[in-house]
Write a structure and sequence with these properties.
The complex is a heterotrimer of chains A (about 270), B (about 260) and C (about 350).
Chain A: H1 4-34, H2 45-48, H3 50-81, H4 89-97, H5 104-115, H6 120-129, H7 139-164, H8 167-175, H9 180-209, H10 212-217, H11 224-234, H12 238-269
Helix pairs in contact in A: 1-12, 3-7, 3-9, 5-7, 7-9, 8-9, 9-12, 11-12
Chain B: H1 5-33, H2 48-89, H3 91-101, H4 103-106, H5 109-120, H6 124-128, H7 130-155, H8 158-167, H9 172-183, H10 185-201, H11 204-209, H12 217-227, H13 230-263
Chain C: E1 15-24, E2 27-37, E3 42-46, H1 53-61, E4 72-74, E5 77-78, H2 84-87, E6 89-92, H3 104-114, H4 119-132, H5 148-161, E7 166-170, H6 178-195, E8 198-203, H7 206-212, E9 215-220, E10 223-228, H8 230-235, H9 240-245, E11 250-257, E12 260-263, E13 271-273, E14 279-285, E15 290-292, E16 299-308, E17 312-320, E18 323-330, E19 340-345, E20 351-353
Parallel strand pairs in C: 3-8, 3-9, 6-7, 7-8
Antiparallel strand pairs in C: 1-2, 1-4, 4-5, 9-10, 11-12, 11-14, 12-13, 14-20, 15-19, 16-17, 16-19, 17-18
The structure holds adenosine-5'-triphosphate and magnesium ion.
Magnesium ion binds near residues 53 and 54 of chain C.
């Protein structure tokens, strides 16, 4: 028998909070987006105005490339680490997932230390070849930053999936004469697909919304979150900032929802 | 049998990834302790930068801690009962509510912050207070707390435990405290560590929500990265690392414990 | 009454259900059920999986809401609207529902703590109950560190500790191995009688039902098919279903004339003396009532296989191709497959159902 009133009491704090600080503000954001100089046409400004459209395209491209690179790296690392015991494995794993806790600004700083003027690569390059190698503030630096904060997340997701993969499946495939590439194609990757969707979507959504890294690296390329920030604070164009925010939120939410439904279908349908 | 080339390549790539992730952190630690980073080890080591960071930014450290603890308190208060309510209720309605509550994970922090400012920017006292930052952090971390608790609830037979306690005469609220909460504790611990870690590192929302009087550690870091010399920025980063490392170790221990418990 | 249980007053309530019905999503899981359970009686609900035993038990417990009001009474008092925590029923769950965050003693004492009973009294009460189920040495062990049988006893002690009006047990032994199950079955039966508590005991194991129940209610598809003492259920089953569910039953169909049943089948002259007037009949008898005989009213059947049971052996024999009977005979006799045996059944022990019932 259910005690209704108790159930209501349990959910009440979450309901009030969500209503007051999520639903209401999002509604306010939507209204704000419609009150810009161009009204509700502002929603499409991100597509119609060249500056915004370019920014969206760059951000999309960057996020997609980041996702692909991260998936490739994490898949390899996950398979290397799964089902394998060696001294220091735990420590290695901890070190590799440690950057999970870093805010975007710290990641940006790490990239500066890696590829900035005083960075590691530049000093090595100067010492070895006498040539400068500074890339932290370029699109490539941004890409590295995105990979830096994506790899730990996706690695954890994929490692969990790889640990679940029965090693005897791979052994069976080998006993049937399959080479390493065939094993990847026919056995391992299909088993990892659901995790790859989930991890990939998470990676993509995070990359689309990442702000701190771009902020620290202060690149000349405006990614969409930087665009929102500058529209709101510098141009004090709240309506435009709101409509771009909504477009960005819709993209990331859709990516996650799509991946989740695909991952679910894959795990169910076998 | 020798190692296959694929295995070797895997090891090499994994090692490179690890180096790429770890070396900058080590450089930052080194830079924060070195007298002059550009001149290298020969210049010697010092704690002066850390001291300078402390005198300039110690308020952000304390504020971050306070914000994290307030965020934790609120997510516990809101998230734990909420998670239990969703699992109890089940069905389509619960799934819709869960989707709604976890929406902040899917929406960029900047958009959320903008929404909050537009809705509550007019309430001066609230807008200026640390509480405004806390609200943003709760919004962002609540899904993590709820998911951690829901995950544990799904592994224990909470319904039978609840019915068992009910058959002994225990009213619903007492059953929640006596048999549900103690048995979801691993989830609460994991959720709490995640919430505190995320809150301490939160930047996207905080950068928009903060006022000069409510700067947190990552906001201070962004300041330092933009305007301070590399050694100070590094020393500040070092302070941040020292704050999050115990949390991360705790998270790992909690995860190991739950794994052991579910296996036995 | 045993001195051990003296401290516990007789606390069994009589239970009455009045057209008790339960529907889940438009699907009637429990047909209107009238039950009268006397104070101190042990009623066993027996039936195949999915027949609604647990549902009936949970309705009595207050864990499910009946379809209508006024359907469940304890000692004449309508309890239908009371949730389980207000009904004062002791419940032993199939999975025990012991609290992993508490020790054995804390589990047993939990109901007393909820009632606000002082620590001193609670502890002595808990101790007494633990002694009763033989767990005094395990009081401070975590529930996760004791064996299945010990958990079972803890669950029983915990349910008894609150001095419930009725005790409800849902397959309490199902999670245990066969040897332990048989031993605990006897212990629980004795304990329940000692307490004089009204108990409803759910099982799908007919041997367990026979051993424990004062009465057994055999259920099928949400309906009680028959309710009665174990012996009545076994020897006088009300219908085919009950007959089959509480043991093996042989069945012969045919016409009776001059008190002799002639089986309708090709290639057989099987006959059996059953008595009574001329009629079509379905005649049943249990394997153990078969007697070897050479008389004219005997059935002749061909032996197919024998299974040795110790004192007896079970023969599988056929009166016609595909029409098999099972007979329990002394194991000292020797039978070979293919051999013809002639036997009849004690007319007193023959059960007759109406044809096409
Ligand atoms: N909460 C519920 N919602 C929907 N249907 C239910 C619910 N509980 C039970 N049922 C259905 O009611 C019928 C009877 O279930 P019940 O659990 O009472 O059977 P049972 O006799 O105890 O079986 P078993 O021996 O398997 O435990 C089953 O068909 C079951 O699917
Ligand atoms: Mg059942």
């Amino acid at each position: 028998m259910r005690s209704r009133s108790f159930d209501v009491l349990l959910i009440l704090p979450a309901a009030i909070f969500t209503l007051a600080f999520l639903i209401l503000p999002l509604a306010r954001l939507t209204v704000e987006a419609g009150t810009g100089p161009s009204g509700f046409a502002g929603f499409f400004a991100i597509l119609t105005e060249a500056r915004y459209r370019n920014s969206l395209l760059v951000t999309l491209a960057l996020s997609i490339v980041t996702t692909l690179a991260t998936l490739a790296l994490a898949t390899i690392a996950a398979q290397t680490l799964a089902h394998r015991k060696f001294p220091g494995r735990g420590l290695l794993l901890s070190l590799m997932t440690f950057p999970l806790a870093f805010p975007g600004v710290v990641v940006g700083f790490m990239i500066i230390l890696f590829g900035g003027r005083l960075g590691l690569v530049n000093s090595l390059s100067m010492a070895a070849f006498g040539t400068r190698a500074i890339f932290a503030y370029s699109l490539f630096g941004l890409f590295l930053g995105y990979v830096y904060f994506s790899v730990p997340r996706v690695l954890l997701t994929l490692l969990a999936a790889a640990e679940k993969l029965d090693p005897s499946l791979v052994e069976a495939a080998r006993s049937l004469g399959a080479g390493p590439l065939a094993i990847q194609r026919d056995v391992v990757l299909p088993a990892l697909f659901p995790a790859m969707y989930t991890g990939g979507a998470l990676c993509f959504a995070t990359a689309m919304g990442a702000f701190g890294t771009a902020f620290t690296l202060a690149t000349s390329i405006d990614v969409v979150p930087m665009l929102i920030y500058t529209e709101f604070t510098l141009a004090t164009n709240a309506g435009m900032a709101a409509s771009i925010s909504i477009a960005l939120g819709a993209i990331t939410w859709a990516a996650l929802a799509l991946a989740r439904s695909r991952a679910m279908r894959d795990t169910k349908g076998g | 049998m020798g190692l296959r080339w694929t295995t070797l390549a895997g090891f090499a790539i994994t090692a490179l990834i690890a180096l790429f992730l770890v070396v900058p952190v080590l450089l930052s630690v080194y830079a924060g302790l070195s007298v002059n980073y550009a001149r290298g080890i020969s210049a010697g080591f010092t704690l002066d930068w850390v001291r300078q960071v402390w005198s300039l930014y110690s308020d952000t450290v304390w504020r971050s801690l306070i914000v994290a603890l307030m965020t934790l308190a609120l997510t516990l208060l809101i998230g734990v009962p909420g998670a239990y309510a969703l699992v109890r209720r089940g069905g389509r309605f619960a799934r819709i509510v869960e989707e709604l509550v976890t929406l902040p994970v899917a929406i960029p922090g900047l958009a959320l912050a903008l929404a909050l400012i537009l809705a509550y920017g007019g309430f001066g006292a609230f807008r200026q207070s640390t509480l405004f930052v806390v609200v943003g952090h709760v919004l962002f971390t609540l899904p993590f707390m709820m998911r951690a608790v829901i995950a544990i609830l799904e592994t224990i037979d909470w319904r039978t435990l609840d019915e068992g306690a009910a058959s002994l005469g225990s009213p619903a609220w007492l059953r929640f405290f006596d048999v549900i909460l103690p048995n979801v504790r691993p989830g609460i611990v994991a959720g709490a560590l995640t919430v505190v870690t995320l809150s301490i590192g939160e930047f996207n929302l905080t950068w928009m929500l903060h006022t000069p009087m409510t700067k947190t550690l990552p906001v201070g870091l962004a300041d330092a990265y933009a305007s301070m010399r590399l050694e100070v920025a590094s020393a500040y980063t070092l302070v941040f690392l020292i704050m999050v490392i115990p949390l991360l170790i705790g998270l790992q221990l909690a995860a190991d414990l739950t794994e052991k418990r579910t296996k036995s | 009454m045993n001195a051990r249980a003296e401290a516990f007053t007789r606390c069994g309530s009589a239970i009455t259900t009045n057209a008790l019905t339960k529907t889940f999503h438009g699907h009637t899981v429990l047909q209107p059920t009238h039950l009268e359970i006397a104070s101190g009686e042990i009623l066993v609900l027996l039936g195949p999986s999915g027949c609604g035993k647990t549902t009936l038990l949970r309705l009595i417990a207050g864990l499910e809401q009946p379809d209508g009001p006024n359907m469940i009474r304890f000692d004449g008092e309508d309890v239908s609207a009371l949730p389980i925590e207000k009904r004062n029923v002791g419940m032993v769950f199939q999975s025990y529902a012991l609290f992993p965050n508490m020790t054995v003693a804390e589990n047993v004492g939990y109901g007393l703590k909820v009632k606000g009973i002082r620590r001193k009294q609670r502890e002595s009460e808990t101790k007494r109950l633990l002694a009763l189920v033989g767990l005094e040495d395990y009081a401070d062990r975590r529930i996760t560190t004791v064996s299945g049988g010990q958990r079972q006893r803890t669950a029983l002690a915990r349910a008894l500790a609150i001095k419930p009006r009725v005790l409800l047990l849902d397959e309490p032994l199902a999670a245990l191995d066969a040897v332990l199950r048989e031993r605990l079955r006897v212990e629980i039966g004795l304990l329940l009688r000692e307490f004089g508590i009204t108990a409803v005991y759910v099982t799908h194991d007919q041997a367990e039902a026979m051993a424990i129940g004062d009465r057994i209610a055999v259920m099928q598809r949400g309906r009680i098919e028959q309710i009665g003492a174990p012996k009545a259920i076994y020897h006088r089953p009300a219908n085919d279903f009950v007959a089959d569910f509480v043991g093996t039953m042989n069945r012969l169909e045919g016409r009776v004339s001059d008190g002799i049943l002639a089986v309708d089948a090709e290639h057989t002259q099987a006959r059996l003396r059953v008595g009574g007037g001329d009629r079509s009949a379905v005649v049943c008898f249990r394997p153990e009532v078969a007697r070897l005989t050479a008389g004219p009213g005997a059935i002749r059947a061909r032996v197919i296989a024998t299974t040795f049971f110790g004192a007896t052996q079970r023969l599988v024999a056929e009166v016609a191709p595909g029409r098999q009977l099972q007979l329990d005979l002394a194991s000292s006799l020797h039978f070979a497959p293919g051999q013809i045996v002639a036997f009849d059944a004690d007319p007193q022990a023959i059960i007759e159902f109406e044809k096409d019932a």
